[in-house]
Specification:
With 235 residues, this protein is an alpha/beta fold. The protein has one domain (2-234): TIM Barrel (Alpha-Beta Barrel). Helix content is 52%, strand content 12%. The chain contains twelve helices and six strands. It has helices at residues 2-11, 30-44, 59-72, 89-102, 113-116, 122-129, 147-157, 169-177, 192-203, 207-216, 218-227, 229-234; strands spanning 16-18, 50-53, 76-80, 107-111, 134-140, 164-167. The protein has a six-stranded parallel sheet. α3 packs parallel to α4 (89-102).
Length: 235
């Protein structure tokens, strides 16, 4: 883990996301996750904020993982609504509200229907964004042609200034150009330099440069889409 994290801090990434889908957190015990929290916090040591994923099948387990992350020194937590049986909207809101209220750190909500079989509507995203303790959302980036419309709808549903970032690396650049707040990137775990340059190009208003840089990663995006980003990066 230290060998993976050092290049990220050296590249000056804005945040480090720990134990997300690509970190295979769903397959780790609580002790293993707690140890990962501790190693990451020690390695990063203030050079970049640490956001730890705490998704779990049970609400009480997610709360315990949230407290572990806080004890290790994380700045935020990322919560995916993991479930065996897809949650109703009321169950989902209740789960997120409980973890946000009891976990002890700011909470970023992860809307990832591929992993959770739960699809957030813009209205639901806006409702969750207003829960106490929820500070941002991570959504699946729409297909490139739909990026502008989708980001606009989500921003209108959420409170003014509420940050909505995107995962799904092959579509993330267009989501950023459409005023997405952040790129939750798998590719950046191995290639932080070019990922950071793409983000900085968007921030500078240079969409053409961002798209050109993104195009150089197309061979990687094809692999991600064919085999899933997790399998490609793990191998």
């Amino acid at each position: 883990m230290r060998r993976l994290l050092e290049p990220l801090t050296a590249a000056g990434v804005d945040w480090i996301g720990l134990l997300g889908s690509t970190g295979t957190s769903a397959y780790l015990s609580r002790d293993e996750r707690r140890r990962a929290d501790e190693i990451a916090a020690e390695t990063v040591s203030g050079r970049a904020p640490l956001r730890v994923s705490i998704g779990a099948l049970r609400t009480d387990k997610a709360i315990r993982l949230a407290r572990d992350a806080q004890a290790a020194g994380a700045a935020e937590r990322l919560l995916a609504a993991v479930s065996y049986t897809p949650l109703t909207e009321a169950e989902l809101v209740g789960h997120l509200e409980a973890v946000a209220g009891e976990g002890g750190l700011p909470l970023v909500i992860f809307d990832d229907p591929n992993a959770t079989d739960v699809q957030f509507s813009p209205e639901l995203t806006g409702r969750i964004a207003r829960l106490p303790g929820v500070v941002a959302a991570r959504c699946r980036a729409p297909e490139q042609a739909a990026a502008g419309a989708r980001v606009s709808v989500l921003r209108m549903a959420a409170p003014a200034g509420f940050p909505i970032g995107f995962s799904g690396d092959w579509n993330a650049t267009e989501a950023l150009i459409a005023r997405g707040a952040a790129w939750f990137s798998v590719a950046a775990s191995l290639f932080p330099q070019i990922s950071r340059v793409i983000v900085r190009a968007v921030e500078a208003g240079d969409a053409d440069r961002a798209r050109a840089l993104n195009a150089t990663l197309e061979p990687l995006w094809r692999l991600f889409k064919a085999h899933s980003s997790l399998r490609v990066v793990e191998r």
